[in-house]
Amino acid sequence: MECKKKGSCQLLSKIATNEQHGENSSYFDGWKAYDNDPFHPIRNPNGVIQMGLAENQLSFDMMEEWIRKHPKASICTSEGLNMFKYIANFQDYHGWADFKNALARFMGKIRGDRVSFDPDRIVLAGGATGASEIIMFCLADSGDAFLVPTPYYPAFDRDLKWRTGVQLLPVICNSSNNFMITKEALEEAYENAQKSNIKVKGVIIANPSNPLGTTVDKETQKMLVNFINDKQIHLVCDEIYSATVFRRPNFVSIAEIIQETECNRDLIHIIYSLSKDMGLPGFRVGVVYSYNDGVVNCGRKMSSFGLVSSQTQHLLASMLSDDEFIDEFLKENAKRIAERHFTFTKGLEEAGIKCLNSNAGLFCWMDLRPLLKEQTFDAEMELWRQIITDVKLNVSPGFSFHCVEPGWFRVCFANMDRETLDIALKRIKNFVKGAGKKKERKNSGKRIIFELVFQNEEDVTMKKHEFTKSYHANVMSPHSPISQSQGQDLIMIIKHDH
Ligand SMILES: Cc1ncc(COP(=O)(O)O)c(C=O)c1O
To answer: What residue stretches are annotated with the Aminotransferase class I/classII large domain (predicted)?
Structure first.
């Protein structure tokens, strides 16, 4: 918490000033850089392009068309105004039955109707953000811990920890197996917690993963269920990106896994939201879906703190109940994400940049390890600052996702139009080309070794100056891309003639 006047923090609570809000993370720094100099194709074509926001802006046209065709669904049209008084007054924290029924069916549809959801188990919350906090409040006390595989969504640090006092302990995953969660890593994190006398209350995962853009396979999920069942701790699955899966392997929900795997269902909870799959983060529709009656009952009371507005429930109840529209929307949306992903990763490939092979999400996990000066987080930070200030792209460094390997960056591709994406790709290509040339210069420069023989110190200074001048004049043309300040590429062995 920033306190403008010295000492004013003392006036606030410990929670308000405990710095756990996570906004000091470099993930948010990039947003600030964008805010100060935002790209606009005409007004600010050299501005920073925002590639740090996992937003889905690819399918608004479909939604707008539906809204235009269904004026009754909105209370702000002459066709829908008759519902105004009722909707404006609706405030039941159980949520509107029509909306919860439609939402439960929608959640089933995304999972290919292989599972069904009971509307009475749905607890509404202000986005997945509100939902995650509710679940933490229900499951853990301050000081207790949840295990979370790395790399993970940076705002988990704020959403899960800040106001609850819960700790997050990393389960280390790395690129050797494409960042998959292993039993060994889980056991190690659990044992480390026990050695430190920290009570582990559960494991939380995001499936599909943010930032990896990969789905968690069946076997891994079964292993997770067995792990938490053995330890009698909870498993929370954030499935906010479930309908962003655009190619095989298909998404498998934890709801399907527990149909096949024996476990105590009281330990299983799902977090969901319409922010990504429907591209509606501003509507703040979040869900806790728990198989545990106690969590449903308590969570529902807590949802009073962040209700989904009745106007939103009313509109979406109609939209989500329109099967034909929803089927088409989900199909087309996934197709558009797939196309975006293909265009973007192909462009990166042309620039020589590889990404983790992914099948979901609104971003790529870009491997810039070859561009690091050295394999350290300092070098990652240096490269990231260069990408923001020189390339003018706000991408998010792996460090802010608690990735243990330096050099990985998350880049979002669905929060902009195609033209902006092309400009971003062009900037990346130019940057990589420039970085490659620099490397070449460094290597070739080092090969140019001159031996100069001098009489005395004065002679050294004078001849060095003359030689450098004539070297630049003769060896480099005025249009040489090698800047004049790069004289260090020229190596002189200075020998004194005694
Ligand atoms: C994994 C994950 N969980 C939760 C959220 C928060 O979503 P919401 O906008 O619904 O609060 C995000 C948003 O980026 C996310 O990536």
So the answer is: 49-428
